[in-house]
UniProtKB/TrEMBL annotation:
<dbReference type="Pfam" id="PF01863">
    <property type="entry name" value="YgjP-like"/>
</dbReference>
<dbReference type="InterPro" id="IPR053136">
    <property type="entry name" value="UTP_pyrophosphatase-like"/>
</dbReference>
<dbReference type="InterPro" id="IPR002725">
    <property type="entry name" value="YgjP-like_metallopeptidase"/>
</dbReference>
<feature type="domain" description="YgjP-like metallopeptidase">
    <location>
        <begin position="112"/>
        <end position="217"/>
    </location>
</feature>
<protein>
    <submittedName>
        <fullName>YgjP-like metallopeptidase domain-containing protein</fullName>
    </submittedName>
</protein>
Amino acid sequence: MQRGNGRLTPKYLLRERPVKWDPSYDLTTGTITVHVTRKAVKNFNLRVRSDGTAVMSIPWQTNRQKAQAFLDRHHYWLKRSIAQVLEKQPEAPDDGFVPLWGRLVELPCDLAVDELYHREVAQALPALIKTYEEATGQHATAWRLRDLTSRWGSCTPSTGHISINIRLAAYPPTCLEYVVAHELTHFIEPSHNSRFHLHLALVFPEEKKARSLLKRNPREVADAGASPVDRIPLIV
Ligand SMILES: [Zn+2]
C-alpha cells in the first residue's frame, strides 16, 4: 500500500494501465448475432449483408453497453431486414447443383444462382418474345428481368412494359413460355377473366400444366423429372 492524498491506495491503482479495447467482437440481440467492429466513425452503422449476416461499426470511444443498447433498440428492424434479404436469395445449392430449366445442373463456383438465372432468361427471352408477339399480335415496349419474390411476371399496359422473374429459369422451359404469353395477353385483356383465358388458350394451350409446375419447388420438379445421370455439368 502507498499513501496518496492522505489515503491508502492499493498499489495496482497507481500504475497506469493501458485501456483494453477489443477491436471487434460479437454482440447478440434476441437470437441474432451481430459482428461489431470499432472504427474511426462518428455514428453507429448497422447493416445486413447480402448473405443475411449482420455487422455493425461503432466509434472507438463507445463501450459495449451502448452498442448493446443500440442493437436492442433496432432489434425489430434487424430481424425484418434479415428476413427480407434471405427471402430474396435464390435457393441455396446444398450439393453444388441447382435447378435450371427443369434439370439439375452443377453451379460454376464463380457464378451466383441469380446471375446464372438472369443470364439464362436473357438468352431464352428474345426467341420467345418474337414467337408470342407474333401469336398475340401484341408488342411490349420494354422487357425487364427482375428477381421478384411474389410474382412470376407483371405488365403495365399503359407503358407497355413487362417484367419477368429470373427464377423462372429454375423451372422447365414451358413455364417461362407461359409467363411471356400470359403477360402479352394482358395487353388484350388486363384482368384474369374468361376473355383473358380464352385469348391465352389460343396462343398457349398448356396453361394448367405450367401453372401447376410453378406451384411446386423447382428442385423437386427437377429431381422428379431426372435420374442422377441427368445431372449435367454446366458449360459456361
Ligand atoms: Zn396476369
